[in-house]
Write a sequence for this structure.
């Protein structure tokens, strides 16, 4: 499934206004958390994958089945390789600070429909 472009744009704009770096890209979904191998991680990274998540696959499957708009926002919880890093400006910010701009983006997206 492909993310709903207008929803992604709203999320990007809202989170950017709140001072968050918002890279876009595919997510690697797996239920084998902590069994990823270094070669797998490097291959997905080299292919442009920007996040790893266990829950996204289920959310996206339901959205696709229901014909609903979908996008995901991920907050870094851990790192797969020692080369991964968070810009220092974002190191002390997390999910709670992302909530208000995310809700605002969702409200705008729904209001436009």
């Amino acid at each position: 499934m492909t993310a709903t472009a207008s929803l992604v744009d709203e999320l990007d704009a809202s989170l950017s206004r709140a001072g968050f770096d918002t890279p876009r890209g595919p997510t690697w979904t797996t239920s084998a958390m902590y069994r990823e191998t270094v070669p797998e991680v490097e291959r997905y990274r080299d292919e442009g994958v920007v996040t790893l998540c266990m829950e996204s696959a289920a959310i996206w499957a339901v959205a696709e089945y229901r014909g609903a708009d979908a996008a995901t926002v991920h907050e870094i919880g851990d790192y797969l390789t020692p080369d991964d890093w968070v810009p220092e400006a974002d190191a002390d910010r997390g999910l709670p600070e992302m909530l208000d701009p995310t809700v605002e983006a969702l409200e705008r997206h729904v209001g436009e429909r």
Observations:
- The CA atoms of residues 26 and 105 lie 20 Å apart.
- The mean pLDDT is 83.
